[in-house]
Design goal:
single chain, about 150 residues, Arc Repressor Mutant, subunit A, two-stranded antiparallel ribbon, about 5% strand, globular
Length: about 150
C-alpha cells in the first residue's frame, strides 16, 4: 500500500513544527533560568559565556564565539558587559593585535562556586529523570550538528 503525503493543512500546523517546539522550549528554558541567573548578576547569554570560560579560561574571542555559535557582533557587547561587571578581562595578543583573549578575573572565577547550584535547580524544575535529560541533550546536539554541517 503506497503511503500518501499528509495534506498541506496538517503539515502547516504550528504544533507539528519541530522548529516551534525547539523555539518555544528554548523560551521556556530561558525563563526558568532568569531568576537563578539574576542572583548571579548574569543574563542567559552571559551565563553561557561564563560556562565556556570556566571550562577553558583564556580563549580568544573567535574561539569563544565558535563554541557559543555567536558572531563577534553579538559576542563583543556581551563581553564588554562582563568586563564592566569585573568578571572577565579582554587582552590583546602581543603578536597579533587582532586576536583578543578573554580571561576570567578573580571575581569571575569566584562566581563559579555560586553558579554551581544552577544545574541542580534546573534538573529539579524540569521534573525529568537525569538520564532522559542527558539523552534529550545529546539528541538536540546531534540535530544541531546535522543542521550546521
Amino acid at each position: 500500500m503506497a503511503s500518501h503525503p499528509p495534506p498541506a493543512d496538517r503539515l502547516l500546523r504550528l504544533d507539528n513544527q519541530l522548529c516551534f517546539a525547539l523555539y518555544s522550549a528554548s523560551l521556556a528554558m530561558t525563563k526558568l533560568y532568569k531568576p537563578l541567573l539574576s542572583e548571579l548578576g548574569l543574563t542567559y547569554p552571559q551565563y553561557l559565556a561564563m560556562l565556556v570560560l570556566w571550562e577553558r579560561d583564556g580563549l580568544t574571542v573567535s574561539e569563544l564565539g565558535e563554541r557559543l555559535f555567536l558572531d563577534s557582533g553579538t559576542l563583543t557587547p556581551l563581553l564588554k558587559r562582563l568586563e564592566a561587571a569585573g568578571l572577565i578581562a579582554r587582552i590583546r595578543a602581543l603578536d597579533d593585535e587582532r586576536r583578543v583573549h578573554v580571561t576570567l578575573t578573580a571575581a569571575g572565577r569566584k562566581l563559579k562556586a555560586r553558579a554551581a547550584k544552577v544545574p541542580g535547580c534546573i534538573v529539579e524544575a524540569v521534573q525529568c529523570p537525569l538520564p532522559d535529560i542527558v539523552s534529550l541533550t545529546r539528541q538536540v546536539q546531534a540535530l544541531r550538528e546535522r543542521l550546521t554541517s
